[in-house]
Amino acid sequence: MPEFLYLLPPDEARQRLFAHLPPPSLPTETVPTMEALGRVLAKAVKAPHPLPSFPRTSVDGYAVRARDTFGASEALPAYLTLIGEVPMGRVPSFALQPGTCALIHTGGALPEGADAVVMLEHTQRLGDEIEVLRAVAPGENLLQPGEDVQEGETILSMGQPLRPAEIGGLMALGILEVEVWKRPRLGLIASGDEVIPPQQSPAPGQVRDINTYSLAALILECGGIPQSYGIVPDQPQALRQAAERALQECEALIITAGSSASTRDMTAEVIQSLGAPGVLVHGINTRPGKPTILGVCDGKAVIGLPGNPVSALVNGYLFVRPLLEYLLQLRPRPRATVRAQLTVNLASQAGREDWWPVRLVRADASPSGWLADPIFGKSNLIFSLVRADGLIRIVPDATGLSAGEEVEVFLL
Questions:
Q1: Are 261 and 295 in contact (CB under 8 A)?
Q2: By CB neighbour count within 10 A (0-12 exposed, 13-18 middle, 19+ buried), where does 111 fall?
Q3: Closest among 137, 5, 129, 134 to 65, alpha carbons compared
Q4: pLDDT in tens, 81-127
Q5: Which of 42, 93, 214, 324 pairs with 198 at a CA distance of 20 to 30 A?
Q6: CATH architecture of 10-27+182-327
Q7: Which of 187-196, 263-272, 298-307 shows the lowest mean pLDDT across its residues?
């Protein structure tokens, strides 16, 4: 098999991969809401009751009948009789009559007869009489029942990732458990005679395994479970045995190659032997990461990433993260980006998509407030990414970017 069949743009390569995958069918599990941070909903959630469930004030002040304040001003105040204080956490036992009011604190339940709240700073207290210095309209400074969500309303959709806000919203409705997709398990195989575990001291010619750990962290961050199958030598039979086991136990497999000249061909041949249809893409028209391989073997994705750590991780963002989003049926959402001005010229080859690591530098003189300072380094230098805040993309139809040009930085 040739080293590269032909180079595809990343978007087209992803489309080809997903077109050959079966519809995602992860099992589900029910987990406590407080343990569901970062999980993805497998079932829509409906509100069991309205929120708020009773009319309450959004400010500290005095519950009033709005009509009793009409025309009130600092020059001509309205005067109301104070009849009590609304107890927090309980329904008031009294009702407002014409010309009366009640002291109420933020979140307190509105007493019967009241339809507005005057803010404390718009009043003065004179014994049992309240001087109202500003009129209020019916409903002012109130939260009405169902104003946040209505009973039976779909509050969260399938595919929604659960952030701190969603956890809080579920708890506000007393929803203590949620049904989520089980985390997909992705196998990781590091390949290469020169690769050793991080806990060993490398001899001349050896390098510590970086890719297993950076990609495992990416998988965890994206909602999956990484499972390492160790480091295998540049021997097709050893790689095939490890890959077969990983595909039996996992939803997908990622192989990172060593640096020997034959490794890419070996990885492609092994993927081709694991099941139909086998290799779908062998070579991506991007830098870094041209040797990337995408395949599907009997319904499971297999991705062969370059051995160089920067290439492996950048292409992990381009292919592994979208794969996890596909498996989890994650609802489409925008990436976190920042606009910044490029500090230097960057050249690019026409027809190729380039990804450059950049650090962000605060600059008040810049229209966006940020400068994007490229980090120059080869694809085997992991600290070029450690020093980066994000990546910028040079599109295939461009021959580079100019200093001072505004760019979009995809935050890491």
A1: no
A2: buried
A3: 137
A4: 999 999 999 999 999 999 999 999 999 999 999 999 999 999 999 99
A5: 324
A6: 3-Layer(aba) Sandwich (3.40)
A7: 263-272
Task: State how far the Cα of 321 lies from the Cα of 111, in Å rounded to an integer.
Answer: 53
For domain 36-48+151-181, the question of CATH label 3.90.105.10 is answered with: yes
- Whole-model pTM? 0.89
